[in-house]
Structures are given as C-alpha cells and as structure tokens.
Write a structure and sequence with these properties.
The complex is a heterodimer of chains A (267) and B (307). Chain A is built from ten helices and eleven strands. Chain A is α/β, with parallel strands linked by helices. A seven-stranded mixed beta sheet of chain A has the order 1-11-10-4-9-8-7, with helices on both faces. A four-stranded antiparallel beta sheet of chain A has the order 3-2-5-6, with no helix packed on it. In chain A, helix 3 packs across helix 4, helix 4 (127-140) packs across helix 6 and helix 6 runs parallel beside helix 7 (190-203). Chain A is globular. By secondary structure, chain B is mainly α. Chain B has 13 helices and two strands; from the N terminus they run H-H-H-E-E-H-H-H-H-H-H-H-H-H-H. Chain B has a two-stranded antiparallel ribbon with strand order 1-2. The two termini of chain B are 51 Å apart. The chains are: A alpha/beta (267), B mainly alpha (307).
Chain lengths: 267, 307
C-alpha cells in the first residue's frame, strides 16, 4: 500500500513505527502503519471514528497492554529503542511517554497530591522538592494563578477545563519526553480549549506532542504534522492513508480519500 | 371522548377547541389503590422495627426498677444469685467481634481487590459465585464446621478444649467475608476506570495503582463494608454459641471459654423466668442499640461524603 508522504520524513524522529499491526483479540484493528513522529513538534492524528487513531496512540505508551488479548506485530521505537522489546518495563516507558485523556481524570485527591503523584512514585520525598515541582508544573500548565491559594482543595472540585490542565500539570511533573493527548479538548468548554491549545504551543519546543482529534480545524490550527487514518471497509483493519506537514496536507492532499475527508465528504 | 368536526374549519379561522379526555374513575382508583398498597409494604418495615423495639423495651423495663443499672452493668453474671451483670458478656461480644474484624477485614477487602483489580474474567467467574455462596450457608453449618474442624486445631495449638474467642474469630472471620467483599467490590467498581488509567499512564505499577489510588478513592465504601461486617459479627448467635465455650466471665486467654450477649440469650431464653428473663431482654435492648448505632454511623458517613 502506498502512503503519501507529502513531506520528507522528519529528520529527527521521537517515535517511529515500521509495518505496525495491532489486534484486539481476533479483531485486526490496524495494519501496516509506517510513521516517523517528529521530535519536539506537534503531530495530529485525524480520521473518522473507528479509524484506529486512538488505538495507535495508546500503543505508544503500551496502555493497550491493560486490555486482555491485545497484540502487535512490526516495530515501534522511542528514540531508537524498541518499545515492545521483550522485558521492556511498560512502567518506565509510561514515565517517558505521558498521556492526557479525553475525559479529565484527576485523582480524588487534593490538587497538590495530584501533581505530586508522579514525583512521589519516582521516590521524591522531600517536602521542599515536591513543593517546587508542584508549583513549577502548575505554572507550566497555566493553572498556578487559579489554584495557588487552594492547593489542598480536591482536584475534582475544579471545572472541567481546569481539571484537564491539572491532568497536564500532573504529567508535566514527571517531565516526559513525549505527551500523548487523546482528544483532550472534546469534553471541555471552548474557553478552556483555547487555553489547552496555547499550552500545547508553549510546550512543543521541548516536548514531542501527539494529539488525536476529531476537530480538523484544531488539527490545522495547532499541529506541525498531520496523519490521516482510515478504515475503508468495515471489518477490515484501518491504516495510515496520508502523512505530511499539516499545511500541505490540508491545502493540497495527495490522496483522494484525504481530500474527501478534509472537505467533509464523509466521516 | 369528544369527536371534533373539522369539516367547516376554514383556513383562516382559529382552530376549534378540542376537549381533552378526563381521567376515568377506575384508572384513578387503581392508581391510588396501588400507591397505598406499596406505601403499606414500606410502612410495615417501620412498624415492625418500632414494635420489636417497644416489645423488647417493655420486657426489659424491670432492669431499671427491679435489677438496677448498677447490677445490670456489673461484671458478675450469676442469675441464680440475683447477679445480672452483663459487662463480661458485653466484653465477650466485643472481643469476639474485634478479633473477627482483624482477621476478616483483610481477607474480605483482599478478596474484593483481587476480584475487581487483578483476576482475569475466567478466575473471577469461578471465585465470585463461591463468595456469594459463603453468604448463603446457614450459620449452624458454620458453627458445626467450627466445632468439628477448627476447634480441634485450636485445641491442638493452644492446649485445652479449643472452645473460646480464638475459634470464634476464625469462624466469624469467614462468615463476614461475603458482607465485606460484596460491599467493597461495589465500592471499587464505583470508581471510574479513568482514574486507574491515569495512574497506569503516570507510570504506576498495578500495586501502586491499587494502594495509592484505588483504595484511597474507595475508602468510604470500605468503611461502610467494615461497619456492616461488624454488625454481622456482633449479631451472629448460633455459630458463636457452638464454639465459644459459653462461660460468662472475662476470659483468661483467647483460647479459654467466653460468652457473648447473643449466645447467652440463646442459651438461657428457653428456661429462664422472672428477673433472669428480664435481664435477657435488657441484653436484647443493648444489642438493639449497638446495631442501630452502626446503621447510624453508616448513614452519617454517607451523608458526610455527599455534603
């Protein structure tokens, strides 16, 4: 299968896959995905529901391991190291590849404890170190001003948009190299969407961000690269159709199916 | 129903008033009747509780007048000598219950954690019904099991007959597992999946996720489970009576005979009369107050967490 690459493969890639296939039990969900994710850039995954873009994203921190009966073929590497090599500790992988979910999911703990969760797991115990990390992370997530005087408040008491930024702060506290965002804006209000998008732009220079989105305007607005996934026939596996620089993909898609999708002819 | 003649309704005329059907008498009566019937069912529960309490209180009234509270709350239980002190029995109930909780809570919560967080579907399908079955076994069977299987082991280990608090702990610990497990499972299942995912995605291991995220999030539900398990342990009569030795004294050790409020009532009720019988009802009131307090605690906790 030909995958149109509208731009040359990014020179430095954070995550690369070759002939990557994925199964949920007997269901073959993804086939033959070959993709190099540019380091310290924002890459958007777009495509209709059920096209496997979230599944593919969740392969990158091995969250699919939590589902019984899933398996992969092909290779996926993070900075050259095989993510699925035998003996690799998914726990260590997930510390380097953070994830933000569609539904904000802070722990039912205080704001402080939410952000301190990751550092504590990694063995940081000093109160002053933790204080610094919590403040720094909340500042980077643009939430500090709103919560600095109520750090002991339950994270679930915040608004949906604030909760999502708290989740981002929680991830930033462990300083991941890669940030996976699975439709991070689809469950929050428009003002908060703006804040999260601004935040992504601020983080990108030092962090590889991959975002799954249903919102093509969002993909066009914020991403450097875009990958279009599609399941053409129901029951058959989905795959990567086109991948390239966002401007090029949206203005002059090389694949007819990409063009049909971004012009709203299906999906 | 009124039929409406539309034939002469011109295009520009306001639509004619169309009557709505009235509720028929029979429908009204049927609805009202059912409403009262269901109310009566629910009300019966309240009335029964009140009647039982009133009856027990009435029977126990002479505790205040003829026995006296000083006698009643003393440590000597010797009905033939006019001594009706329930404190050793109360202490026995407390000892048996606390020990059962110490053993039963980790077992019950551990089972629940295993079933919800760790077990594969196939293992769960095997263990879950077994836990449910534990709840369905009549308590006399537990008592029999305790007397024939557990007691000799305890006797072997501690010397003596094996009748005592330790044997009761082991039997009761198994008996309260279904209560604690079932309620803890409910508490764990009510925690959103997203919170677990967030924990794993942060690089937490399964064990870290369980004890740093899942258990703290379910703590109120688990406290409920423990309190209700406690109620079950305090109220259990037959199984305890069969293994506890029934000596209404402060026990010398955990393996020497002791008696509880419930087992003493069951033992004495058939032959007692006069003030002895009154004292038994007095013990019933004490048990009643303890269970009511436990239910009250659970209610209060659930209110606190909502408010």
């Amino acid at each position: 299968m030909t995958v149109y690459q509208a731009a040359p493969t990014p020179e430095i890639s954070a995550i690369s896959t070759a002939n990557f296939d994925f199964w949920y039990g007997d269901f073959h969900a993804l086939t033959d995905v070959n993709l190099n994710i540019a380091k310290n850039k924002i890459t958007a995954f777009i495509g209709p529901s059920g096209c496997g873009k979230s599944t593919f994203l969740r392969c990158m921190n091995r969250m699919n391991d939590l589902i019984e009966g899933t398996r992969i073929e092909g290779s996926m590497t993070l900075d050259g190291a095989d993510i699925y090599a035998e003996g690799v500790d998914p726990v260590d992988l997930r510390r380097r590849v953070g994830m933000i979910f569609q539904q904000p999911n802070p722990f039912p703990k205080s704001i402080y404890e939410n952000v301190a969760f990751g550092p504590r797991l990694q063995g940081v115990t000093s109160k002053s170190d933790l204080d610094d990390i919590v403040e720094e992370s909340l500042k980077r997530a643009n939430l500090w001003k709103e919560v600095s005087n109520q750090l002991s408040k339950d994270g679930l008491a915040l608004s949906g948009g604030q909760q999502q930024r708290l989740c981002i702060a929680r991830v930033l506290a462990v300083q991941p190299d890669v940030l996976l965002m699975d439709e991070p804006c689809s469950a929050i209000d428009p003002t908060s969407v703006q804040k999260v998008e601004d935040l992504m732009a601020e983080l990108a220079p030092e962090m590889t961000i991959i975002i799954v989105t249903h919102n093509m305007q969002q993909a066009a607005r914020i991403s450097d690269y875009t990958a279009f996934f599609l399941q053409e026939v129901a029951g058959e596996p989905a795959t990567l159709i086109e991948y390239g620089q966002t401007d090029a993909l949206f203005t002059s898609p090389m694949d007819k199916r990409t063009e049909d999708y971004i012009t709203g002819r299906f999906g | 129903m009124t039929s409406v003649d539309r034939s002469d309704a011109g295009e520009n005329q306001a639509p004619r008033k169309r009557e709505l059907a009235l509720v028929s008498r029979s429908t009204y009566l049927k609805e009202k009747g059912l409403q009262y019937l269901f109310f009566a069912c629910a009300f019966l529960a309240v009335v029964t509780v009140l009647l039982i309490f009133a009856f027990t209180m009435m029977q126990a009234a002479p505790v205040f007048t003829d026995i006296g509270l000083a006698n009643f709350f003393s440590f000597t239980w010797a009905p033939t000598e006019g001594q009706y002190g329930i404190m050793s029995l109360l202490a026995g109930s407390g000892l048996v219950t606390v020990g059962a909780l110490v053993l039963g809570v980790p077992l019950g919560v551990g089972t629940a954690v295993y079933l919800t967080e760790i077990a594969t579907d196939r293992v769960r399908a095997l263990i879950s019904p077994a836990v449910d079955l534990l709840a369905g076994i009549p308590s006399i069977i537990y008592g029999f099991f305790g007397m024939v299987i557990i007691r000799p082991v305890v006797a072997e280990l501690t010397g003596g007959m094996g009748f005592g608090a330790l044997t009761a702990w082991l039997v009761l610990a198994i008996m309260i597992v279904p209560t604690i497990t079932t309620l803890t499972i409910d508490a764990l299942n009510s925690i959103p999946m997203g919170i677990r995912e967030a924990s794993y995605a942060m690089g937490a291991t399964k064990w870290q996720t369980i004890y740093k995220v899942v258990l703290p999030a379910a703590r109120f539900g688990i406290v409920d489970a423990v309190v209700l398990g406690m109620g079950r342990a305090i109220g259990e009569t037959m199984a305890v009576l069969m293994v506890v030795g029934n000596a209404p004294v402060i026990p010398e050790s955990i393996s020497s005979p002791v008696s509880t409020l419930t087992s003493q009532i069951a033992l004495d009720m058939s032959y007692s009369s006069g003030l002895h019988r009154t004292a038994l009802f007095g013990m019933g009131v004490v048990l009643f107050i303890i269970s009511a307090s436990l239910v009250g605690i659970v209610r209060l906790l659930s209110k606190m967490r909502k408010g």
